[in-house]
Specification:
Rossmann fold, 7 helices, about 160 residues, alpha/beta, single chain
């Protein structure tokens, strides 16, 4: 069965886990452009993307909108509850899911996914649950590395490369 949905945590996977506050209290995060391009390409291949994150952030909402990620959930305590509802809505099952997370609140989601990815700098406890430990750190292209791994594993390389012709 092929992977149809990738589920992304944010802090520590799409970002380097840092949260910076300006003097006026504005939150600042940095996202990797290479991750964004890979996410957009995954969608162009007809695949689904979801963000499920524990924190609430206008910056993350803006990034999800910019990347046209329609399955966006923030402020989530129990990620698998949200993911269960999403899978039902999309008529998918966990065999069709790949997920990336880096910390303890991602464990249940990673345990259920068909393929669990963690960035190089994930918690040691989360790393033990991973199918794939990526060579990149969160915010440093880990999501891109995950998507490229899936593209090769799923035999989508030619279709992927043809997107750029």
């Amino acid at each position: 069965m092929s992977i149809e949905l990738i589920v992304l945590d944010v802090d520590g996977t799409m970002t380097d886990s840092r949260i910076t506050y300006s003097e006026t209290g504005d939150e600042i995060k940095s996202f990797n452009v290479k991750d964004g391009l890979a996410i957009a390409a995954w969608r162009k291949l007809g695949k689904q993307v979801a963000i499920i994150t524990g924190r609430k952030s206008a910056i993350v909402a803006r990034r999800a909108e910019e990347l046209r990620i329609e399955h966006f959930y923030q402020g989530v305590e129990k990620k698998t509850e949200v993911l269960d509802r999403l899978l039902e809505k999309l008529s998918l099952n966990y065999d069709q899911v790949a997920a990336i997370g880096d910390d303890l609140n991602d464990l249940s989601m990673l345990r259920l996914a068909s393929i669990a990815f963690v960035p190089k700098d994930a918690s040691v406890f989360v790393e033990k649950e991973a199918d794939v430990i990526l060579s990149k750190k969160g915010g440093d292209g880990a999501v891109r590395e995950m998507i490229e791994y899936l593209i090769e594993k799923e035999g989508l390389s030619e279709r992927f490369l043809s997107l750029w012709d």
